Amino acid sequence: AAARRVHEEPWVHGVGVLGRVTTQISADPHAHRFDLIAVHRCPHCGHRLRGSGPSQDCDRCGGSVFAGDADRAAYVGRMSQRLPSTLLVCLLLSSVPVVGLLPGYFYYRLTLLSGLSAYMPRTSRLGRRWLLRLLKFGLLFVQWVPGLGALTLPLICYVDFRIARRALVPTT
Q: Which pTM was predicted?
């Protein structure tokens, strides 16, 4: 009877940062769809996506990741909601000279950028990488300066996010 009741309830489990199923129930199906896209999973069946770029279809169900430009813009808007908290964590981690850079870098890549960079066109990713390498190289020289150094990682995070956002949803 318990197994039957489980199949009758219209709930789905949420997904974590790395794409694993969590024990929490997702209350909002629209948000759950974007959470699946953020961890590079099909928003229809949950299968892991293999391709890259904004226009890709699921290998299992054939569903399209983004229904159109408006859907892509809504997804980027959802990812933009994560920006303030990510910048705050980056600021706190970056305030620890040298030691805080690596955890902060991995944190913002996992929570914010991995959900966008998987859907960027390849040409945009190449230019973004080189621009960020130059920025990181320049900012690493001032990271050890108290006060000023704490702003380096949030600045890198913000620039990286803006570039990824613009590549996914070009401004008109």
A: 0.78
